[in-house]
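Worked example 2:
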Amino acid sequence: MQNSDTIAGMVRKYLDLNPDLWKSLDIGVVNFSALSRIISADMGIDNIDAIAAALKRVPRSGISNSKYRKILKDSTIETRSSITVAILKPATENLRLLINLTRNLAESYTEYRIIQATQGCGLVISDDLFRRISSMIPKKEIIEVTQGLAELIIISSPEILHLKGYVAYSSSLLSNHGINIIQVVSFHNDITFILEPRDVLEAMRIFMQEKEL
């Protein structure tokens, strides 16, 4: 049987993986007994009382959705269409290649993004610009290329840098409405969602509706 410290750690992990539940717990609208039974079944913990005790000890942030909405209300939302996401193998040479290929190609700072990650380096760029450089990227270095996507960009105040859960809140607005997020990039005070083009108008409607609440 797991001890109380182990159970508390498993409960926190479960909440980390389910930010909507964490938010509901944070604002005090959760039935502890019901949630404890769900966590017991999902995590294989046979001590429901210990789960409930762990839930009651989870620190509360005191941040409600109204705080997020206030920031969203003052945010700028932009969209772009005909976007390519190219993912190359993780190598310094591939990162250098993307930098060199785009350096003299794009006329605007916002026309492309180069993203470095542990599993690869990514290029987010317009379909037209990608077609101009695609032949110069060795096929053996490409993991995946997806074209015809769209971006929805939320540019908020720098306050979000110190506000826990803002990215999770923004993402959940889309996922709770059945919109698949292909990629999400959060840096400084903007969040970029890469979506299927058919979902962009609905995503915009969702955020505009939330701004008006």
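The chain has nine helices and six strands. Residues 33 and 113 are 46 Å apart (CA to CA).
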